[in-house]
Design goal:
This protein is of the alpha+beta class. The protein has two domains: 132 residues, no CATH class; 95 residues, no CATH class. A hairpin with an 8-residue loop joins β2 and β3. The protein starts with 23 loop residues before the first helix and ends in a 5-residue tail after the last helix.
């Protein structure tokens, strides 16, 4: 019986090494679901890359994955005909399908007058990743918006209210679905999008909070802080008590 040859590892160095943070839920909930070696390698590589980034807004770009020699060398190719980049594309599709990574596409002007190109950006599906993605959709995150070329625009369809709820709040129920339909009939789509953004930014992931924000805008006037509005009638004063104080500090015109 022939022995399979392995490339040996020389061991970790006897120096201080930088730790990489991996959430413990990865080992409990996600790892048992991963059934593809390349998907596992890509997932772990994402945690390493994010640990290397500074700032609160962390994201990953497809073009960086495709030029990452360390990542490409680590991926297993199914046959001699499959390239490492093709193996990477398959792994990316798997992580997005499993909802480990959240994908966003932007369309940018090509260099030297070339045709427009589409770039894929990825966010790990953590509370912070979901919040960052929601803010990017609204163009409200200066750190990420500055990284997008001035000629670029987000190439994402506006998510419907049910997708917004499931991505940012939780699972739908028939009662909640009816409430969301009522909101769609009552408020403009951009108001609903922003109300979800406010809820995520304040970590108030409840439909009641989103409703309160929308009612606050309806009564007080969108783009104004509650303490800047004066001279309202008694109905406005009655409804003011349902407006959470926390959202007024983050809403700007």
């Amino acid at each position: 019986m022939s022995r399979q040859r392995f490339t040996g590892f020389i061991g970790f160095p006897d120096t201080k090494m930088k730790p990489v943070v991996v959430p413990d839920i990865f080992f409990v909930d996600l790892l048992p679901l991963i059934d593809d070696l390349n998907e596992l390698k890509l997932t772990l590589h994402c945690f390493w890359l994010l640990n290397e980034q500074d700032g609160l807004a962390k994201y990953l770009r497809g073009k960086d994955f495709r030029s990452d020699e360390v990542l490409l060398r680590s991926l297993h190719t199914a046959s001699d005909l499959q390239s490492p980049v093709e193996a990477l594309e398959d792994a990316l599709e798997r992580t997005v399908a499993r909802n480990t990574l959240l994908k966003l596409e932007i369309e940018v002007e090509g260099e030297n007058g070339d045709a427009k190109q589409v770039e894929d950006w990825y966010f790990v599906n953590t509370p912070k990743g979901r919040q960052t993605l929601a803010l990017v959709r609204q163009g409200r995150l200066a750190e990420l918006q500055a990284a997008i070329p001035s000629a670029a625009r987000l190439k994402v369809d506006r998510p419907n209210i049910f997708i917004l709820y499931e991505q940012n709040i939780g699972l739908l129920s028939p009662i909640i679905a009816d409430q969301l339909r009522d909101l769609e009939k009552t408020y403009p789509p951009e108001w609903i999008d922003e109300a979800f953004t406010v809820a995520v930014a304040n970590n108030k992931r409840k439909l009641s909070y989103i409703v309160a924000v929308l009612r606050g805008w309806e009564v007080e006037g969108k783009g104004h802080r509650a303490d800047e509005i004066t001279g309202r009638d008694t109905e406005a004063e009655r409804r003011r008590k349902y407006i959470p104080d926390e959202y007024s500090d983050v809403i700007r015109g």
